[in-house]
Amino acid sequence: MQYQKEDVRNRIVDAAKTEFLRVGYFRASMLQISNRAHVPIGNLYRYFASKASLYDAIVGTAKERIIECIENGKGISIEADNLGGNSTKIIVNKASDGFLDLSKNYHKEIILLTQKSGGSAYDGFINEVIGRIRELLKDRLGNLCNDSNEFLFDIVADNVTRGAFRILTECPIEQQHDEIVKLLVFYFNHLEDRLY
User: Fold this and answer.
1) Residues 100-150: pLDDT tens digits?
2) By residue range, what is the domain housing residue 63?
3) Residues 35 and 107 both lie in one domain
């Protein structure tokens, strides 16, 4: 009996993911998800009390992993005098590996979070990530952050975040590592030299 319950739950989640990807959170309906999953609507509500709880079941873990990846970036030492050479390569490769891990495990969920979450509790997800990246940059590159550079860090955080998500959602998986490396090198290689 437990196997049947798990099978029904998985069918609901798969159908919901397909529907959310097709029309987005706002336009998706529980009735359409029910029909797609071949599960009576009443039974669907036994598994998920609302569309919001169903969406959370699909994207919640991916969101946590993305935030965790950013928080782990705070442990990477980026010192102004180490931004060139091998240090940059190590940092860029470590960040690229983190992005690729996210893409491999949560590709559809990242699309949902970044492009299809309008009307949900995750609607401001990209802005939340941009804010966290901005704080990471300020934390790691604080000695370069003065009043004249504060606005620049905001712009860099916005562009790096949107660029990374665009790569993760639009590039074939086999090209993502190289594209992420190019993005990060473009913004961060020899940064100190370019700020003055």
Assistant:
1) 889 999 999 999 999 999 999 999 999 999 999 888 877 777 666 566 667
2) 58-194
3) no
Q: What is the DSSP string of the chain?
A: -HHHHHHHHHHHHHHHHHHHHHHHHHH--HHHHHHHHT--HHHHHHH-SSHHHHHHHHHHHHHHHHHHHHHHHTTS---GGGSSHHHHHHHHHHHHHHHHHHHHHHHHHHHHHHHS-TTSTTTTHHHHHHHHHHHHHHHHSGGG--HHHHHHHHHHHHHHHHHHHHHHHHS-HHHHHHHHHHHHHHHHTTHHHH--
Rounded alpha-carbon distances, angstroms, from residue 29 to 13, 50, 69: 13, 10, 32
Stretch 161-165: mean pLDDT: 94
Report the number of distinct structural domains present in the chain: 2
**169 and 72 inside one domain:** yes
b/e code 33-56 from CB counts within 10 Å (16+ = b)? bbebbebeeeebeebbeebeebbb
Give yes or no for a contact between 89 and 151, defined as CB atoms under 8 angstroms apart.
no
Structure tokens at 152: 């620049």
Kindly report, residue by residue over 34-76, the tens digit of the pLDDT.
999 999 999 999 999 999 999 999 999 999 999 988 887 655 5
Distances (CA, A) of 2 to 5, 36, 38, 40, 49: 5, 22, 18, 18, 20
